[in-house]
Structures are given as structure tokens and as C-alpha cells.
Recover the amino acids of this structure.
């Protein structure tokens, strides 16, 4: 490769990175105002009902737009064309239709960008990559159920039912991800299995059994280390792993109990316990991650192979941080 060509490619990479870092918009597949009734495809933005010609376009085809003004170039020339894609404009915290440039409004209120951000965190990768129709319905339900702006539009029973569905489903997604990233576990399934309507308890049971087995393993390992009079700090690390598995088991037990709660105030009370468990998991997970990444621990694993199993937790710890961080961010809004 010539030096000139190399410098040009390097320049393009830097410009692309800079553009991504300075972007003031976020593109989203699907739209909460897109509805399908039988053979009709409708836009219900601003409480109107407009029959549209829907053309599903993946927002990733607009990689070079970094602000609202540049997105104006993508407007459709026909007023009835809908790309079923939207974008958040961070400067004004509003959501815009890509094809028509309209501000999204539901029940007389602007849809806040932060609510869409929260919705995207809560949706599974399966939902996000599915058809725009499915993704749109998920976005709509989330905004009305958990968004602050539209909190008064649903009855307490409707809120209770929807929140239970979200937490139930999200907990299963977490279990799937964790079973896939934990080297000491067998994968319990995939997100496709969840979408196909599996029995949630039976699906989760395999993960809970493995959590109990891991608790027993760490408890026995800790007893051995205490008997061998190993340094206290490494004993504490092993006990922390045992406690983390116990807290995660507690979290799933609490989410399963939500299924039997039909009263909104009781639901909120149980969510407080779930949030507390999630917070404890996050704190403990961060402590463990910090310790196993330390030079002190690296030196230990170099001389004693027994502790390499602790170092294997690094990958899962990042997944735990992401998933339980999302739970805290979303459910604290209730």
C-alpha cells in the first residue's frame, strides 16, 4: 500500500470516528406511531390517522448524518411515504420521523428522546432486529407503560400487567446472556426460545439449578482455603463469588414472584426489593472485577492454578454490569 493511500485511509477512519463521537442524533428502527390494522398501514402521529405507504428502511444506511439538519436530506418527496424509522435529536430531546420530518407526538404530548433511549435498553436484540412492525409495537408499549410523560394514560391494572411482562422477559434475557458468558455454565437457550413463548419458570429453572451448584462450589472452595490458611484477601474474594451467585438467585426468585402480583402498589413494593438486589449485585460485581484485574491477583494465578477459575469471571462481569445497570436505570423511573 502506498504511503499516500495509507494516510488517506487513516484520515477517513479518524474523520469517521470524530463524526460518530460528535453526532447529536440517534437513529432507531421502528416507530411507536406506526400501526398495522389488517391490510392497512397507518401513521397515528399527533393523534391523526393517516394511511401510508410503508417502506422499511434500516437506519444504518444513513451512517454519515450526524445532526438534525443533515437528516432533512432524507425526507421523502411523497407525503404518504413512511420509512418506519425515526431519530432522537439530543439537543432538544425530541424524536423525529425520518421520512416526513415530523416531531413524534402521542396523546397530545411530544415523545421525549430519553424515553426512547430507555426503551431501546429494555428491548431484546431479537426485537430490535425483527420487523419494524414488531419493533414499533414494543416501543409504543414501553413508552406508555414506563415512560414518565405518559404515566397517567394507563390504568393501574394495565401498568401492572405490562411491567410484569417487561421484567419477566428481561430477567429471562439476562439469564440467557449470563449462561452464555459464564464458562462454568451450560447455556440455557437463546432469545429465540424466549420469543417462541416458553414456560418462563421451566426455562429459568435450569439456570437457577446451576446458580445453586456454583454457590456450593464456591462455599466448599472457601472452606478449603480457610483450612489451608490461604491469605485472607483471596478467601474473601471466593466468598464474594459465592455471595454474588446467592444474590443473583435471589433476584430471579423475586422476579418470578411478580407473576402472582396483580395489585399495582404491591408490584411497586416488590420492584423495590428487585432494585435493591440489583444494586447489591452491581456493587459486588464491580468489587470482584476490580480484584481479579489487579496485578496482585495476576501474580497469584501465575503461581497457583487453582485461582485461574476466578479470573474466568472477567467476561461475565462485564455482561452483569451492563444488564443490571440497565435494570436500575429503567425501574427507578417507576
Amino acid at each position: 500500500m502506498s504511503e499516500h493511500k495509507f494516510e488517506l485511509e487513516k484520515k477517513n477512519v479518524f474523520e469517521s470516528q470524530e463524526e460518530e463521537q460528535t453526532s447529536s442524533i440517534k437513529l432507531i428502527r421502528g416507530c411507536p406511531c406506526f400501526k398495522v390494522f389488517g391490510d392497512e398501514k397507518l401513521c397515528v402521529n399527533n393523534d391523526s390517522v393517516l394511511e401510508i405507504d410503508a417502506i422499511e428502511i434500516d437506519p444504518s444506511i444513513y451512517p454519515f448524518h450526524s445532526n438534525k439538519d443533515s437528516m432533512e436530506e432524507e425526507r421523502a418527496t411523497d407525503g404518504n411515504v413512511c420509512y418506519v424509522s425515526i431519530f432522537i435529536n439530543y439537543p432538544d430531546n425530541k424524536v423525529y420521523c425520518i421520512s416526513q420530518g415530523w416531531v413524534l407526538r402521542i396523546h397530545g404530548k411530544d415523545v421525549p428522546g430519553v424515553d426512547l433511549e430507555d426503551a431501546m435498553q429494555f428491548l431484546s436484540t431479537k426485537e430490535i432486529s425483527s420487523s419494524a412492525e414488531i419493533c414499533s409495537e414494543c416501543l409504543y408499549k414501553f413508552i406508555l407503560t414506563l415512560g414518565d410523560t405518559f404515566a397517567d394514560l394507563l390504568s393501574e391494572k394495565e401498568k401492572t400487567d405490562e411491567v410484569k411482562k417487561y421484567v419477566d422477559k428481561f430477567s429471562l434475557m439476562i439469564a440467557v446472556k449470563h449462561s452464555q458468558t459464564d464458562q462454568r455454565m451450560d447455556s440455557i437457550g437463546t432469545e429465540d426460545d424466549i420469543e417462541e413463548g416458553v414456560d418462563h419458570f421451566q426455562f429459568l429453572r435450569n439456570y437457577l439449578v446451576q446458580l445453586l451448584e456454583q454457590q456450593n462450589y464456591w462455599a466448599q472452595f472457601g472452606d478449603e482455603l480457610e483450612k489451608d490458611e490461604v491469605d485472607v484477601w483471596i478467601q474473601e474474594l471466593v466468598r464474594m463469588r459465592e455471595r454474588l451467585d446467592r444474590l443473583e438467585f435471589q433476584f430471579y426468585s423475586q422476579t418470578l414472584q411478580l407473576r402472582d402480583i396483580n395489585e399495582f402498589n404491591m408490584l411497586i413494593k416488590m420492584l423495590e426489593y428487585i432494585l435493591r438486589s440489583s444494586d447489591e449485585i452491581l456493587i459486588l460485581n464491580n468489587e470482584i472485577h476490580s480484584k481479579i484485574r489487579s496485578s496482585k491477583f495476576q501474580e497469584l494465578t501465575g503461581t497457583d492454578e487453582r485461582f485461574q477459575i476466578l479470573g474466568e469471571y472477567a467476561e461475565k462481569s462485564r455482561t452483569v454490569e451492563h444488564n443490571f445497570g440497565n435494570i436500575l436505570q429503567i425501574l427507578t423511573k417507576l
